[in-house]
User: Which sequence fits this backbone?
């Protein structure tokens, strides 16, 4: 572009939601660009017009001072973060500026996720059915980072079984993880969040809580409990005026190891297996869930409370086949 542009000129970068505004800092070579996302009016740096390493250094410094991440400065706990949706949630929250406490029963994979993320993450072992473990993780989080702003109750399990052939042991185990775990997390996170000035609780439910799924009776019941508890917490926090929001996410199928294992009956699945179970368009990627988690964790959703957010490609409004 040369040295002839003026401060008032605009250069479009191909994204209809963004514009690049060129400017200069006294010296002709110290040029930088700010990318303005008109959806949320936040500023991010782009190197489109940088012309030397000095300008790059200035731009990087500006970015750091601006705190560009959508959840910059927030402290988040993500449960079940060793794989699947939780792993994607942890990575995206960290990329957008949050400090993430990666939690899971699987210590080796959980630590690996924290290592992948780097300095913005730590791993803590958490059995979501253990109340003392919850107390310890939340206390350690607040002690280490000074606050708790976001809780993503993602840990869960599923097993096939209708109401007739589900045994009591399986029923109790699934509900202990999926329902009790969310209850314990919310119960102990709320006081810590209130002390931090508010926050966002994001509970992972399912479309099973909306329209029922006959082949997973215990799972459906557990996710229905999460849906109802989320609304209870939203009302409680509103009445308490503690600045905490609570919302639930309701995916249909997600291409995660847990879902693929149940759907195929295999411990490991090929890409062909994954493609087969996703052929009806109801299987999304873990990143699709993470994008909504990020939105609900951020201040962009500050007036959304007690909502149930579907990620299902219209499956809950699609008429059943053969019924």
Assistant:
């Amino acid at each position: 572009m040369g040295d002839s542009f003026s401060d008032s000129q605009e250069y479009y970068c191909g994204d209809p939601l963004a514009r690049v505004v060129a400017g200069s800092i006294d010296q002709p070579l110290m040029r930088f660009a700010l990318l303005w996302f008109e959806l949320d009016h936040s500023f991010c740096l782009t190197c489109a017009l940088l012309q030397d390493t000095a300008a790059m250094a200035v731009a990087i410094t500006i970015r750091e001072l601006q705190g560009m991440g959508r959840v910059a400065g927030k402290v988040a706990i993500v449960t079940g973060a060793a794989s699947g949706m939780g792993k994607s949630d942890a990575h995206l929250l960290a990329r957008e500026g949050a400090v993430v406490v990666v939690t899971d029963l699987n210590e080796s994979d959980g630590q690996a996720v924290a290592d992948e993320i780097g300095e913005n993450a730590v791993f803590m072992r958490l059995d979501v059915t253990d109340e003392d473990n919850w107390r310890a993780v939340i206390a350690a989080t607040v002690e280490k980072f000074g606050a708790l702003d976001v809780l993503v109750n993602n840990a869960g399990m599923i097993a096939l079984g209708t109401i007739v052939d589900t045994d009591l042991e399986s029923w109790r185990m699934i509900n202990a993880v999926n329902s009790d775990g969310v209850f314990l997390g919310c119960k102990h996170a709320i006081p810590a969040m209130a002390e931090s000035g508010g926050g966002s609780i994001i509970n992972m439910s399912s479309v099973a809580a909306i329209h029922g799924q006959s082949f997973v009776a215990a799972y459906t019941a557990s996710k229905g409990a999460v849906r109802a508890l989320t609304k209870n917490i939203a009302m409680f926090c509103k009445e308490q005026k503690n600045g905490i929001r609570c919302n639930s996410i309701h995916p249909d199928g997600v291409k995660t190891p847990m879902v693929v294992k149940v759907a195929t009956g295999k411990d490991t699945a090929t890409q062909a297996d994954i493609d087969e179970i996703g052929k009806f368009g109801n299987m999304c990627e873990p990143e699709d869930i993470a994008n909504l988690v990020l939105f609900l964790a951020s201040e962009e959703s500050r007036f959304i409370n007690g909502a149930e957010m579907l990620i299902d490609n219209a499956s809950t409004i699609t008429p059943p086949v053969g019924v």
In short: Residues 10-66 form one domain. Residues 168-195 form the longest helix (28 residues).
